[in-house]
Structures are given as structure tokens and as C-alpha cells.
């Protein structure tokens, strides 16, 4: 495994994440730009109850990012949402995405009974299925969901 450290970020330095924005856009992904723009504007700072932002970094370079929000598409306060998971292409297939998602899931278990997400990427679809996310009986505006109940493990 590459020497990458995953940490929870309370105050994201947007200058540090900007190279990741540019890299993601080269691949045609715009959701990291949305994370950046929403963080700068204050629209989404992952700072409400039950929310968190995690980054993976190697030395001083951010190589991955993933957030947890209250699910904005449900009125139920027991549903969290995985947001903006992205790993730099040079760091994929080394467990970085799994480590980011593990941190999100562990944090989500403290607040939610269900975790949802939306993706249209077939590689991401397989990644989430391997982790244990389901595509059956989907809630609105989600492509995958995971039960966080201890007795469903």
C-alpha cells in the first residue's frame, strides 16, 4: 500500500485541494469542483451535525477526498450521504478510496442508520458493491445504499 494518511479535516485549505480539482476535471469529473466551490462559498463545509470531510494525503499533497453529509434528499434524519469521493489516478488500486470510505462509514455509524450515494460511473458502482452497498430497493435520488445497523452486518 502506498504511504498515504487519511485524516478528518475541520478547516479545509482550498489551495491544497485545488490540484485535485484540476486532475479530476481532466478525467471529466466535475464533482470535486462542486465540493471546492461549495466549500469556498460556505454552502457545504461538512460542518453540520453528523457531517465530516476526510482527505488522503501523501506528504503535503492531497491525493483523495470524501465527505459525509446529512442526506439532502430525504426528510429522515437517520440517513447520511457519501459525497464527492475522488482519488487521484496515480493512487487508485492502492486502497486509498477504501480507506476514505471506511472513515466515512465509521463516522456515519455514529449518527445514521443508512448511508446513500449516487454515481453513474460503472467502476464506482463495482467499488461500492464490493464494500457492501446495495442497489436493491433504492431510496429516492440514490443509486446505492448501505445499512449501518449493527445487526445487519
From TrEMBL:
<protein>
    <submittedName>
        <fullName>GNAT family N-acetyltransferase</fullName>
    </submittedName>
</protein>
<dbReference type="Pfam" id="PF13508">
    <property type="entry name" value="Acetyltransf_7"/>
</dbReference>
<dbReference type="InterPro" id="IPR016181">
    <property type="entry name" value="Acyl_CoA_acyltransferase"/>
</dbReference>
<dbReference type="InterPro" id="IPR050832">
    <property type="entry name" value="Bact_Acetyltransf"/>
</dbReference>
<keyword id="KW-0012">Acyltransferase</keyword>
<dbReference type="GO" id="GO:0016747">
    <property type="term" value="F:acyltransferase activity, transferring groups other than amino-acyl groups"/>
</dbReference>
<dbReference type="InterPro" id="IPR000182">
    <property type="entry name" value="GNAT_dom"/>
</dbReference>
<feature type="domain" description="N-acetyltransferase">
    <location>
        <begin position="4"/>
        <end position="151"/>
    </location>
</feature>
<keyword id="KW-0808">Transferase</keyword>
Amino acid at each position: 500500500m502506498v504511504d498515504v494518511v487519511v485524516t478528518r479535516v475541520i478547516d479545509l485549505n482550498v489551495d491544497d485541494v485545488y490540484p485535485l480539482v484540476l486532475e479530476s476535471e481532466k478525467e471529466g469529473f466535475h464533482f470535486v469542483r462542486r465540493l471546492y466551490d461549495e466549500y469556498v462559498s460556505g454552502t457545504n463545509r461538512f460542518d453540520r451535525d453528523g457531517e465530516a470531510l476526510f482527505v488522503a494525503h501523501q506528504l503535503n499533497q492531497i491525493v483523495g477526498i470524501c465527505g459525509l453529509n446529512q442526506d439532502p434528499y430525504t426528510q429522515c434524519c437517520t440517513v447520511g450521504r457519501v459525497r464527492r469521493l475522488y482519488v487521484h489516478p496515480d493512487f487508485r488500486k492502492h486502497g486509498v478510496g477504501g480507506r476514505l470510505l471506511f472513515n466515512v462509514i465509521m463516522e456515519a455509524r455514529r449518527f445514521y442508520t443508512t448511508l446513500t450515494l449516487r454515481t453513474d460511473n460503472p467502476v464506482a458502482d463495482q467499488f461500492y458493491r464490493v464494500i457492501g452497498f446495495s442497489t436493491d430497493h433504492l431510496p429516492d435520488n440514490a443509486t446505492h445504499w448501505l445499512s449501518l445497523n449493527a445487526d445487519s452486518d
